[in-house]
Amino acid sequence: MAILHSYPFCPQSRFARLVLAELGVEPSVVEEKPWERRLPFLEINPGGNLPLFIDDDGLAVPGALIIAEYMDDTRGDTLRDRRFLPRDIAERVEVRRLLDWFLVKFHAEVSDYLATEKIYKRFMPTELGGGSPDMGAIRAARTNVRYHLKYIGYLIATRNWLAGDRMTYADLAAAAHLSVVDYLGDVPWDENETAKHWYARIKSRPSFRALLAERVPGMAPAEHYDNLDF
């Protein structure tokens, strides 16, 4: 059976989980706390990054982007014209550009700050950096999310989905990262109705149900978090 090492509120893990769910792949999930860097996990994945997918044949596939590419390589043909990484070369470039935007840029500027400061630090021991959140980092992330939301709204104003006419990995990556920020109540949805409607479409998909059901111990989500018609 396939295995996915992930953490419930790791944005990159959430992207991989959405990809697998959309493809109908149901792996056994191993919760991996990103700050622990367990030796058995590092022996499989020396980089220590999440998520890590281990396919039925034992092949270890590390990292959100590599997992997405691997799933397209191994399962994409079965989706035909519904594949999440299109066949057309120009469309593939646009999807990959937006994957970099959300998996790298958005992560570095918004979701990694907020997940670390408001969630991870609650459970990390002091010697590993746990403790009170850095309010400067949180304020920076809250400022940064505004222009990302505006960019999503700009794209959706001219396209059906982020990268074009069909839903792609770009939409799943953006929604996965936003879902963590949204849990924390840090997405100013009232500033961009276009982006809000796009996100409502994504989070209404069956693949999103497991994410919306999860809770951080001792921390309730924003009131609208699992409301499909928010």
UniProtKB/TrEMBL annotation:
UniProt name for this protein: Glutathione S-transferase
Record organism: Microvirga aerophila
Keyword Transferase: yes
Keywords on record: Transferase
Keyword hit for Transferase: yes
Oligomeric and partner information: Homodimer.
An example molecular function term from Gene Ontology annotations: glutathione transferase activity
Domain GST N-terminal intervals: 1-79
One record GO biological process: glutathione metabolic process
Annotated ranges, domain GST C-terminal: 88-219
Pfam families (UniProt xref): GST_C, GST_N_2
InterPro entries: Glutathione-S-Trfase_C-like, Glutathione-S-Trfase_C_sf, Glutathione_S-Trfase, Glutathione_S-Trfase_N, GST_C, Thioredoxin-like_sf
CDD domains the record matches: GST_C_family, GST_N_family
